[in-house]
């Protein structure tokens, strides 16, 4: 793995953990010093993340994690609802006991942040798809909404419903009930999208 890839993964992991929220500025000098690398690979890694919409370069100011508008949240969830059911459908018949066990561990969430555990759960269910590009797309989309997943579950009252859907989804995967699993996943993503878009629409109008 190149230095650029190491920096890219480091930033992505912290975004998935919810440690780099919208509005946070990333200082290239600080990242280079923290990671013990030069500024050149840091800048390239940040440009890659900006290229997929996770960061934004602003002239004479630096790099910031952008906040989402309702329209952008809608775009991200539409993409998630297009990509993730395909990954799940391809995975279910190929899932190993390790995949199921990792999904169960993610639901327990020990040693992980809420958003990190959420992605770990979904990744465990999609990994057996064998689609590396699809998984990379899903990871980017999950990183983009990670802070909003926490908002949905912790502040918008979605925790109970989300937990129930995760448990049902895991059970359907364990029993190889493909269509039932797809139905639960679709509802899970749709419910989160609706609540988040409504919240962002309301707050933008204030």
Structural write-up:
The protein has 206 residues and is mainly α. It has two domains: 3-64, Arc Repressor Mutant, subunit A (Orthogonal Bundle), CATH 1.10.10.10; 70-205, Four Helix Bundle (Hemerythrin (Met), subunit A) (Up-down Bundle). 73% of the residues lie in helices and 4% in strands. The protein contains nine helices and three strands. It has helices spanning 3-16, 28-35, 39-51, 70-92, 97-108, 114-126, 132-154, 159-174, 178-205, and strands at residues 25-26, 56-58, 62-64. Strands 1-3-2 form a three-stranded antiparallel beta sheet. The longest helix has 28 residues, at 178-205. The chain is globular. 33% of the residues are buried.
Keywords:
Arc Repressor Mutant, subunit A, 73% helix, Four Helix Bundle (Hemerythrin (Met), subunit A), mainly alpha, 9 helices, 206 residues, 2 domains
Shape: globular
Q: What structural class do you assign from the helix and strand content?
A: mainly alpha
Distance between the termini: 46 Å
Q: In percent, how helical is the residue content?
A: over 70%
Quaternary state reads single chain
Mean pLDDT: 93
CATH superfamily grouping of the largest domain: GntR ligand-binding domain-like
Count the E strands.
3
Please count the helical segments.
9
